């Protein structure tokens, strides 16, 4: 990677990082004439549309799914078969609606699991309290 390309990548990462909610930095929307091209790119970037984005090289590895990942996939499919959601709803909620911090911070099936919980509560299949109590009950059975 050339030094100029590296500088562009670092500047973009810094600009996007400035907007991350996890930083808890107070920000105000700039006036239109103060929006730089870098800021425009950071504001308009769709969180899950990372194709063509600059990044560091990454080694490709085959990975065997862990049991919790397989269980999460089965849970998500069962919710779909039972009519709780469509595949497009699931994709939108786990990719576009989570925001960049959760999208980049959670493992792939972690976003699926979060989405399952959100769907169950949002569509009133159960209350948040019922879900939390059931999770605690299952945890206690497997300790």
Describe the structure.
The chain has helices at residues 3-18, 37-44, 67-81, 87-96, 99-105, 108-122, 128-141. It is an all-alpha fold. The protein starts with a helix and ends with a helix. The mean pLDDT is 80.
Q: Could you provide a short overview of the structure?
A:
With 143 residues, this protein is mainly alpha-helical. It has helices at residues 3-18, 37-44, 67-81, 87-96, 99-105, 108-122, 128-141.
Question: How are the secondary structure elements laid out?
Answer:
Layout: H1 3-18, H2 37-44, H3 67-81, H4 87-96, H5 99-105, H6 108-122, H7 128-141
Helix pairs in contact: 1-2, 3-6, 4-6
Helix content: 55-70%
| Assembly state (oligomeric) | single chain
The counted number of beta strands is 0
- Total DSSP helices: 7
Instruction: Provide the gyration radius in Å.
Output: 19 Å
Characterize the biggest β-sheet: none
Integer count of domains: 2
The parts where pLDDT drops under 50 for at least 5 residues are none
Name of the CATH first level of the largest domain: Mainly Alpha
User: Strand content of the residues, in percent?
Assistant: under 5%
Can you give the mean pLDDT? Answer: 80
Under the CATH scheme, the architecture of the largest domain is Orthogonal Bundle
Structural class by SSE content: mainly alpha
């Amino acid at each position: 990677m050339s030094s100029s390309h590296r500088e562009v990548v670092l500047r973009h990462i810094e600009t996007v990082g400035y907007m991350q909610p996890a930083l808890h930095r107070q920000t105000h929307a700039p006036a239109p004439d103060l929006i730089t091209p870098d800021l425009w790119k950071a504001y308009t970037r769709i969180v899950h549309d990372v194709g063509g984005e600059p990044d560091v090289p990454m080694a490709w590895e085959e990975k065997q799914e862990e049991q919790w990942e397989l269980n999460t996939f089965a849970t998500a499919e069962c919710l779909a078969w039972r009519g709780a959601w469509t595949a497009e709803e699931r994709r939108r909620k786990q990719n576009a609606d989570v925001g960049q911090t959760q999208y980049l911070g959670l493992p792939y099936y972690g976003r699926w699991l979060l989405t399952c919980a959100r769907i169950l509560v949002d569509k009133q299949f159960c209350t948040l309290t019922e879900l939390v109590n059931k999770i605690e009950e299952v945890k206690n059975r497997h300790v």
